[in-house]
Amino acid sequence: RNQKLLSETPDSISDKVPYQPQQAQQIIAQVLTDERTQLTRADAIALLNDYGISTLIDDDNAPAVISHSQRKGAHPLRVQVQIDPVFGPVILLGEAASHWSIRRNAVVALPPLNMALARYMVIQALAEGKIRERELYVPLDMPALCLFLTQISQIVIDHPALHNLLINPVLVAGDDIRVLDVSVEINAEKNPHPLAIRPYPKELEEPFVLRNQRAVLLRPIRPEDELTLLAFDNSQSKEDRYKRYFAELPQFSHEQMARLAQIDYAREMAFIAVADNSQQQEEILGVVRVQIDPDNIQAEFAMAVRSELKGIGLGARLLQKMIDYCRSQGIQEIKGCTMLENSGMANLARKLGFTVKFNRDDGLIDMVLNLQ
What we know:
Layout: H1 2-6, H2 21-33, H3 41-50, E1 54-55, E2 75-84, E3 88-95, H4 102-105, E4 106-109, H5 115-127, H6 142-158, E5 162-173, E6 176-179, E7 182-186, E8 206-209, E9 215-220, H7 226-235, H8 238-245, H9 254-261, E10 268-276, E11 282-292, E12 298-305, H10 314-328, E13 333-339, H11 343-351, E14 355-359, E15 364-370
Parallel strand pairs: 1-6, 12-13
Antiparallel strand pairs: 2-3, 2-5, 3-4, 5-6, 5-7, 8-9, 9-10, 10-11, 11-12, 13-15, 14-15
Helix pairs in contact: 2-3, 5-6, 7-9
């Protein structure tokens, strides 16, 4: 059941909440310049606001004096980020309280959180009684609470100096979520507690323009891309799918496609080329992925481009993007193979510096590039 839940396609939050990480970083940088470790309440509130999180404050930035009866039906929760000596930053969720035992009162999750993982966290808290739904409270709005948790997760991702973040309470009334009080501590050491799970590497996003003048974004794949990845695979011609998978495969299931979209960025990478179609909906034009061996010495690549978009520079740009990434990670060699009849892939690999060998006994073309 848990594995099925975690393989659900998460909603995208990228276009739902505007956030200002640069402004938040300026707040933290000023605190470090002042040789402080504690943000003022005003700065802590500003930090939350920079990530689209609403707060209840009065004009002089003191906590709003407000009773739960004034926020009728609001469910008081506590959310905290603290450092685990083994796993680094962890996110805790439970009911608001001044005295907390993590084991008794909270559920724990490792950032980064997407909507599916946040949903799992909330469901776990409800199932274990760490959050209790009562008749006096407005029913919890699952998407809104999950979105709030992903916003907290994004703060953790963007600011490695974060040492402790305590929100107690956050008042949840349906989809109306407002922080009543917050405190933030930071650590002056550079990245003292790395995340246990590598977050989405947004810094690898790269816009470019195809020869046909179509604007395209190259970026790492995300779990939310499952449905567009399925549409891309379905758009491939029968011949191109055969060349890609070395067999006539049926349409992928949800579980199979989820595994292709939900990757561990520390052990593999997949770049997709995306652009808006005529309905202003994002579609995938091509994908390249690598599996990296445990020793970080060798990576094996595979690539596919929409059948109707070959010959306009997309494949070359995708593969070069992956070559540059592998080189930046200290990988020594990247290799791949394709069918003998796929001369287009062989010619592209040769142009980008690969050694190309025809293995007629196995019916394959081997492609190897030394990155040292």
